[in-house]
Amino acid sequence: MSGQLLRSPFPFQQRILIMTQSTLTQQALPVDEQSVAQEELNHLLVTQSETVAPAKDPLTHRDRQIIATIINSTPDQIKTIWIEGGITVWVQIKSGGRLPFDKNWFAARVAQVKPTIAEPETPRQRNDRLSDELEQACRKYGLSHGEIDWLSFSTKIFQDGRLVGFVGCNAEGWYSRPRLYGRNQVADTADRAIAYLGVRPVVAA
Length: 205
Prior knowledge:
- By secondary structure, the protein is of the alpha+beta class.
- It is 33% helix and 26% strand.
């Protein structure tokens, strides 16, 4: 494959292949897809000076995942990204290197990679999902719950007005305990966490 080699300005002079126009023509996207690709790239790029890397970087973790996938690196190594001369995308690595890529090629890769990396769940979406799972489990066991602490997602569980324990969900997963202070029983579902409290499912009449 023909191409033009650009040298990194850093001492190790790592060479990165910049695809030529002839290669890009063979891999060109349809007009509408190319427009989408360009929009995706524009979302990632920070408009700065053509020769100076931006001092501040608004890239999200998902942005870094996309870039890392494209350049075969890891998200924690991606420092920032910008365009030079309207044709070259520069990716700055935290270790000190700068990697150049053809803008059109990079835009097409962003459009290809982005759908494969899921959007991170927002706190509101997480709380809604956990709340729905908790409600379903409570109905199964004929239980009710108190007010939910949305920051820690934890609540009290009642059976006919009697406190039977505490249930919540943290980084380890669902958990429950019969008393306010005590050891948590960790579970993979709200259903199983509630079952650890010693209650039984409601038997349909």
